[in-house]
Amino acid sequence: MNDPKAISTPDAPEAMGPYSQAKVANGFVFTAGQIPLNPETGKLIDGDFSQQVFQVLSNIIAILEAAETDASRIVKLTVFLKDFSNYPELNAVFTEFFSHMEPPARSALQVSKLPLDAEVEIECIAAL
User: Fold this and answer.
1) Which of 47, 88, 119, 126 is the most exposed, having the fewest neighbouring CB atoms within 10 Å of its CB?
2) Across the beta sheet with 105-110, what order do the strands follow?
3) pLDDT tens figures, 73-93
4) What is the DSSP letter of 37?
5) CA 96, CA 29: separation in Å to the nearest integer?
6) How far apart are CA 94 and CA 34, in angstroms?
């Protein structure tokens, strides 16, 4: 069993508190929840819900690449939605994003509030 290792990349938004962008442990990458932040500005992107989900997934991919893995190795995503009426749009984005690979397992739930009043947050578990 190896010691957990923190992952950090400038290609994804900096952590907004005392936590790591991700940790690698026992052959897996566990990301912190990602919201639709532009990694260059640290601010929420302008855009509709679909664009926000794509930004979150792009941030996750940047973290996975820093951990030397990729989207095809995603095992599980947990999605937090501020408004569950966006669920059909979430499915449409996932259908497009994972069109060339087996989609991961996923949970989605509605929450009352997210950091910076974001509409969506996603956390990821991926295999190395």
Assistant:
1) 88
2) 5-7, 22-25, 28-31, 120-127, 74-81, 105-110
3) 999 999 999 999 999 999 999
4) B
5) 23
6) 16
- Choose among 55, 72, 46, 75: nearest CA to 11: 55
Q: Could you tell me the residue range of the domain that residue 114 belongs to?
A: 5-127
pTM for the model: 0.95
Residues 6+ apart with CB under 8 A from 88: none
DSSP class of residue 79 equals: E
* Per-position DSSP letters for 41-65, written without gaps between them: T-SBPPS-HHHHHHHHHHHHHHHHH
The amino acid that residue 82 corresponds to is: K
Query: Which ranges constitute the DSSP H helices of 1-128?
Result: 49-66, 87-97
